[in-house]
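Postdoc handover notes: sequence design on the structure in folder B. Input tokens:
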């Protein structure tokens, strides 16, 4: 709208902006523990951290860690996707997307490889860490 004022001779331009808020479109198709209400779907991601991952040795050639997802506040077991991040050599590993014993609060992943020496000390020196994205229900 253009407003003209006679006393000052100035023309003032006023601009009205309409902002429309759009709901995010997250759809969960069949959760691990069944379907929930659509407004209750949450996408949550995280990492165990390069210097914080608590790796433990498993048998003679493997490691594992439990990944905490409590901050996500899921009420049912979510669908989880993982990857392994680090400085070196993680491309050769197996099990990097295998998830065990998933619950709404945590899951465990076991990592191995064809070569010997997949141990906690190697994981720590290469800063291997688990990154995840989980989609689940919070109500």
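Designed sequence:
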């Amino acid at each position: 709208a253009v407003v003209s004022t006679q006393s000052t001779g100035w023309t003032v331009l006023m601009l009205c902006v309409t902002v429309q808020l759009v709901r995010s479109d997250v759809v969960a198709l069949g959760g691990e523990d069944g379907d929930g209400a659509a407004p209750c779907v949450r996408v949550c991601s995280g990492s165990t951290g390069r210097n914080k991952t608590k790796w433990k040795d498993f048998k003679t050639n493997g490691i594992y860690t439990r990944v905490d997802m409590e901050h996500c506040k899921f009420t049912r077991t979510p669908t989880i996707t993982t990857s392994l991040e680090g400085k070196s050599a993680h491309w050769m590993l197996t099990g990097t997307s295998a998830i065990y014993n998933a619950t709404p609060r945590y899951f465990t992943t076991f990592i191995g490889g064809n070569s010997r020496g997949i141990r906690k000390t190697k994981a720590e020196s290469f800063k291997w860490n688990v990154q995840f994205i989980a989609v689940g229900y919070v109500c």
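Context for whoever picks this up: The radius of gyration is 25 Å. Don't rerun without checking with the PI first.
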